[in-house]
Amino acid sequence: MTHPDFYPFEPRSKSDWIKQVEKDLKGKDFEQSLVSYAWGEIRQEPFYTQEDLEGFSQAMKFHPDPELPGVGVRYWSNAVLIQNTEESQANKIILDHLQNGADALILQPEGNENWDLLFKDVLVEYIGVYLLPSKNNLDPVFEFINWVKSKKLPSTALQGAVLWSPTTSLFEGEPILEKGLTLGVELLHLLSSFPKFHAFTLDLARYANSGATGIQEVTFGLGELIELIVQLEEKGVDPKTCLQTISFHSAVGSEHFPQIAKLKALRNLIVEIAAKFNVKLNQEDIHLLCSTSTWSKSLVDKNSNYIRQTYEAISAVLGGCNALWVCPAEKNPGILEQRIARNISALLREESYFDKVIDPAAGSYYLDKIQSSFETEIKNRIAALEKVGGWIQNFSNRTLHAEVRKNREAIQSQVLNQEKTVVGANRYSPEEKLVNNLEFEPIHEAEHELNPSRATYLLERQTLRS
After folding, report:
1. Strand (E) or helix (H) holding 325
2. Are 85 and 52 in contact (CB under 8 A)?
3. Helix (H) or strand (E) holding 31
4. CB neighbours of 387 closer than 8 A, spacing ≥ 6?
5. Which helix (H) or strand (E) holds 217?
6. Span 306-323, pLDDT tens digits
7. Which of 38, 105, 252, 333 could pair with 312 in a Cys bridge, judged by C-beta atoms 3.0 to 4.6 Å apart?
8. Each residue's pLDDT tens digit, 244-265
9. In this structure, are residues 201 and 246 in contact, taking their beta carbons and an 8 Å threshold?
10. Mind listing the domains of the chain with CATH numbers?
């Protein structure tokens, strides 16, 4: 027990501290000198106290208690991308990743896979499997599910998700949602016997990687969720079934602490949306895949991207991801780049001990206040979105596209004009002998698309284009 005289200091209120700060500023304006705004909108003060919060912070629960003995109280999957799954070398690549720290696979099936060969010597029941179909083609997904059923694995053995949702079809050029909904219902029925494999994944990362702010990412992503629940209910899928079969994919960018608050807020907001549909959803019931951002990476001095990958991965873990996908910045990463990306997650667990505490960010006045402000802002934004027709209307008239592109172009111009610093790109460039730039390719985007881009894109086009 601490003796009451152990801290012989007179208690001070926040206003007392602010007065002292203003005195130390010697005439400088408090707001201009010390107050900033996350994504230009969420107020960040230089310090916070208990006075800024309502009640006391509670640690969040990001997943059920581990079933295996010896596993840390906090666990997440280390996911790696496997391309060219129809090639004979794919199985060798998979085994190499799994033997060196990965425990989840993100596969891009094309429809010509030999699943027996691809998963030779792989214990599917002990890893996560994520299927990333291309061009709205779910045939390879159906083939995989039928293959799993033919192996007569226990229903709980298949873990992971299909990284697709009915709304994906709209971003790929379908004029209406009907085809995506029909495919979605078929997929739900086919996967009904696999409770740990999610039939849909809501891709919030699409917005962030194409230049949206964290506020826009979550607003449009949750607006998309509401639309999906309503549309599927009209197809006979009740909201509870829908919410239990959806996982979420978010991209984690360079704003370290706001990104932590964003992910934690996202989990709370999903629970609240479920309640609006009379569905009880617990925090730990939500499956969240986090990938490192493509928007924050640069083709100018690729080595700086390794640092960005690391602190974005830290944000993802502290924010509550269930699977971490560290994406190499290279279009075709080599063995070294893949190894670095894969090892980041392992280092956070094995050497930094991030698996020892379930929610180490809990109790921070700063993060709790940012999270609270973020949640309030998102609720207001979603209410405003619903008043103007909801997500589907804003997609159809391209309003959400225009908002994302406006923010994208503003940031890219700031980077180009050195109004916004990107270390290694427009400021603090390495010496000539250390420069290691990646190859530049123009990004093309149809009106219905939101394609991945980079904050440094205009700078790259100016400096790297031959």
Report:
1. strand 323-325
2. no
3. helix 30-34
4. none
5. helix 214-234
6. 999 999 999 999 999 999
7. 252
8. 999 999 999 999 999 999 999 9
9. yes
10. 77-372 (3.20.20.240)
